[in-house]
Design goal:
This is UPF0386 protein. InterPro entries: YjhX_toxin. The protein is of the alpha+beta class and 84 residues long. The chain has one domain. Helix content is 32%, strand content 23%. The radius of gyration is 12 Å and the shape is globular.
Length: 84
């Protein structure tokens, strides 16, 4: 599966324990905020990127914030330091 650098970066942060909080307008998601494992906000994650990750099944939610799925963990490339 082809995953862009931005998608890889978001998946790495989610794999380390981060999560994505979403806001509804009643029927659909209108805004998202991606948090790293230490509580910082990841500005690289936007709504179109979130939609791509969700449609591919790389992230999912079970009654709470979105987190990485097993498929997402298998798809993300190993990297020693993802701060770059």
């Amino acid at each position: 599966m082809n995953i862009s650098k931005r998608e890889q970066r978001v998946l790495h942060h989610l794999a380390l324990g981060g999560h994505i909080r979403h806001e509804f307008d009643g029927k659909r998601i209108v805004a998202i905020t991606c948090f790293t494992h230490d509580g910082a906000v990841l500005s690289d994650c936007d709504l179109p990127l979130f939609q791509r990750l969700r449609q591919r099944g790389l992230i999912g939610a079970k009654g709470g914030p979105y987190r990485i799925t097993l498929l997402g963990r298998r798809s993300v490339r190993a990297q020693l330091d993802n701060q770059g």
